[in-house]
TrEMBL record:
Protein name: Amino acid permease/ SLC12A domain-containing protein
Record organism: Talaromyces amestolkiae
NCBIfam families noted in UniProt: 2A0304 (TIGR00907)
Keywords: Amino-acid transport, Membrane, Transmembrane, Transmembrane helix, Transport
Regions that span the bilayer: 67-89, 95-118, 182-206, 218-235, 255-275, 296-328, 348-371, 400-424, 430-449, 461-483, 495-514
Cell compartments where the protein resides: Membrane
Recorded topology in the membrane: Multi-pass membrane protein
Principal localisation: membrane
Length: 547
C-alpha cells in the first residue's frame, strides 16, 4: 500500500491524480524506477518525501559557495556603479545616502521573510512553490500561477538589465582608454550585450561542479575590489566634499515637485541592488543542507550588502566632485567618470574593468538561477513546451534547454533598446517591482491563512511584524517605481515598467484561461512513497534526461 508524501494538502494529491487522467498536455512515456531511500542524502530524501520531487541535480554547493552566490546576486560594487545616477537625479548626495539607509531596511525585511520561507520549503521552484503550502487548496492554482509568472518576468528583466549595464560599463572603459574620442552607439551596446549574454549561457552549460568553483571565488574578489577602490578614492581625490554636503545637500534634477517626492526616486538604486533574494532558493536542489545554508546565505549576504553599500555610497558622494559634470559624462556612466577624475586614466580603467567583471559575475549567477526557475516551472508545467525546457543533460547535469531559453528572452527584451533607451530604463524598474511582488504574495498568504510550518531558520515572535513591514514597504516603493523618473513626461522619459508588467500579466492570464486552468492544479508530485512492506522505498517518474 502506498503512503502519500508529507503533503499538508490532500486535495492537491487528488488533483494531481486528476491531471494525469485529464491533462490536455500529454504526459511523457517514462518508466518508473525504484530507489532506496537510505541510498540518498538527507536533502534529496527530504525533496522526495516532503515535496514529491525527484532529485536530479548534484549537491555541490556548501556554506562558502552558497553565501558567495547570494552575495554575487546583488553585485554591490558594480550595481551601485550602474545605478548611481538615479539617486543623483532624484536629490543629489543626500538622496544617495539616506535612500540607501531607509530602503535597505525595508529590503532586509523582505530578505528575512524570503529566507524564512526558503528554509521551510527548499526547492528550485522557490516562492511560487511555497504557495502550495501556504494557501487553501482552491486558491493554490491561480495564486501560484500568478506568482510564478511575475517572478519569471522579474528574473528575465534582472538578467537583461544586468547584461545591458555590463555592456555599458565595458564600453565606458573602452571610451576611457581612447580618451573619450570615441562614444559607443546604442546599437553597439545592444550587440555587446547579446554577446555577453551568450557567454553567460555557455558558462551555465558547464557541469555544476565548475559553476560552484567559479562562484566560490567571487566574494573574495568582490571584497578586495570594493575595499581597495574605497581606499584609493579617499586617498587620491584632492577636492573632496565635506560631511555637511554629503549628508544634507539636496539637488533634485528630475523635474518632480515637491523636492521630497523627487527624493524618493533614489530608492531605485538600492531596490535594484538588494533584490533577487530567492535566486539562492532556485539552486536549493544543488545545495547541501539547503534548509539551513540557503536562508543563512540570503540573510547574511543581504546584511553585508546593506552595510557595505551604505559605506560605498558615502565614499562616492565624498569623492564625486560636481554632480552635473559626472551626470553629463560622455561615458554615460557617472561612477566610471568618478574613477577617471580621481584616479586618472589607469586607475579609472582598472576599476571600470573590475566593475564590468563583477557585473558579469552577477549575470552568470542570475542566469543560473533563472535557468533553474525555468526548469522548475516546466517540471510543474507552467510554461508552453514544458517537456523540452525541463530536460537535464546527462553529461553536464544541467538543464541546457532552460539555460538557452533564458538567454534568448534576456536578449529579446533588450532589443527594445534599439527603439528607445527609455524602454531599457523600464527594464531596470520592472526588475525590482516584479521580483518583490513575487516575494510578498506568498508572505501575504502566510499572514492570511496561518498554514506556515517553519523550517530550521525562522524569526520566531518577530516573524509577523517583519512580514507585515515587508508587504507595506513593497507596496509603497512599487507605486514610486511606476512613475517616470523625470519630468516633463515624453516618449523618451516615460517609465515603461507598467507596460512590461501589464504585458506579462496579460500573457499569463490568457494562457491561464486558454490552457492553464484546464490542467494546472499547483506543483505536481513526481514521487510516491511506498509502504514498509516494500522496504521504505520511493518510486518516481523520471525527469527527461538528454542522452
Amino acid at each position: 500500500m502506498s503512503v502519500s508524501n508529507t503533503s499538508e494538502n490532500p486535495s492537491l494529491d487528488k488533483n494531481n491524480a486528476a491531471v494525469a487522467r485529464d491533462a490536455p498536455l500529454p504526459i511523457e512515456k517514462t518508466e518508473k524506477r525504484i530507489v532506496q531511500l537510505d541510498e540518498m542524502n538527507a536533502a534529496d530524501r527530504a525533496l522526495a518525501e516532503q515535496f514529491g520531487y525527484q532529485p536530479v541535480f548534484k549537491r555541490e554547493f556548501g556554506y562558502l559557495s552558497t553565501f558567495s552566490f547570494a552575495f554575487s546576486i546583488s553585485g554591490l560594487f558594480a550595481t551601485i556603479a550602474t545605478t548611481f545616477s538615479y539617486p543623483l537625479y532624484a536629490g543629489g548626495s543626500a538622496s544617495a545616502v539616506w535612500c540607501w539607509l531607509i530602503s535597505g531596511a525595508g529590503c532586509m525585511c523582505i530578505a528575512a521573510s524570503v529566507a524564512e520561507l526558503v528554509s521551510a520549503y527548499p526547492t528550485s521552484g522557490g516562492l511560487y512553490f511555497t504557495v502550495s503550502r501556504l494557501a487553501p487548496p482552491r486558491w493554490v492554482p491561480s495564486i501560484s500561477w500568478l506568482t510564478g509568472w511575475i517572478n519569471l518576468l522579474g528574473q528575465i528583466a534582472g538578467v537583461a538589465s544586468s547584461e545591458y549595464g555590463s555592456a555599458q560599463m565595458l564600453l565606458a572603459a573602452v571610451s576611457m582608454g581612447r580618451d573619450f574620442e570615441w562614444v559607443p552607439t546604442t546599437g553597439l551596446t545592444i550587440g555587446v550585450m547579446a554577446a555577453l549574454t551568450v557567454l553567460c549561457g555557455i558558462l551555465n552549460s558547464l557541469p555544476t561542479g565548475w559553476m560552484e568553483k567559479m562562484t566560490r571565488s567571487y566574494v573574495i574578489f568582490h571584497l578586495l575590489v570594493l575595499v581597495s577602490c574605497c581606499i584609493a578614492l579617499l586617498v587620491k581625490t584632492e577636492d573632496k566634499h565635506d560631511a555637511k554636503y554629503v549628508f544634507t545637500n539636496v539637488e533634485p534634477d528630475s523635474g518632480w515637485t515637491p523636492t521630497g517626492f523627487s527624493f524618493l526616486f533614489g530608492f531605485l538604486s538600492v531596490s535594484w541592488t538588494m533584490t533577487d533574494y530567492d535566486a539562492t532558493a532556485h539552486i536549493a536542489e544543488e545545495i547541501r543542507d539547503p534548509e539551513i545554508k540557503a536562508p543563512w546565505a540570503i540573510f547574511l549576504a543581504m546584511g553585508a550588502v546593506y552595510v557595505l553599500g551604505f559605506l560605498f555610497n558615502i565614499v562616492l558622494c565624498f569623492c564625486m566632485g560636481d554632480v552635473a559634470s559626472i551626470l553629463s559624462s560622455p561615458m554615460q556612466q557617472p561612477v566610471a567618470q568618478i574613477f577617471y577624475n580621481s584616479l586618472g586614466k589607469t586607475g579609472g580603467l582598472v576599476y571600470a574593468s573590475c566593475a564590468f567583471v563583477l557585473l558579469q559575475f552577477i549575470c552568470f549567477t542570475a542566469t543560473q538561477a533563472l535557468a533553474r526557475t525555468v526548469f522548475a516551472f516546466s517540471r510543474d508545467r507552467l510554461l508552453p513546451l514544458s517537456s523540452v525546457w525541463r530536460k537535464v543533460n546527462s553529461k553536464t547535469g544541467t538543464p541546457l534547454y532552460a539555460v538557452w531559453f533564458s538567454v534568448f528572452w534576456c536578449i529579446a527584451i533588450n532589443l527594445i533598446g534599439l527603439g528607445s533607451y527609455a524602454a531599457i530604463e523600464g527594464v531596470f524598474n520592472i526588475t525590482a517591482i516584479a521580483l518583490d511582488w513575487s516575494y510578498i504574495i506568498p508572505v501575504v498568504c502566510k499572514l492570511l491563512w496561518n498554514r506556515f510550518e517553519p523550517g530550521p531558520w525562522h524569526m520566531g515572535k518577530f516573524s509577523t511584524a517583519v512580514n507585515l513591514w515587508a508587504v507595506i514597504w513593497t507596496v509603497f516603493v512599487s507605486v514610486i517605481f511606476f512613475f517616470p523618473t523625470s519630468r516633463p513626461v515624453t516618449g523618451e522619459t516615460m517609465n515603461y515598467a507598467i507596460v512590461f508588467m501589464a504585458f506579462i500579466l496579460l500573457c499569463a492570464m490568457v494562457y491561464w484561461f486558454v490552457r492553464g486552468k484546464k490542467f494546472y492544479v499547483g506543483p505536481l508530485k513526481e514521487t510516491t512513497i511506498q509502504g514498509e512492506s516494500n522496504g521504505g522505498i520511493w518510486e518516481s517518474v523520471p525527469v527527461e534526461t538528454e542522452k
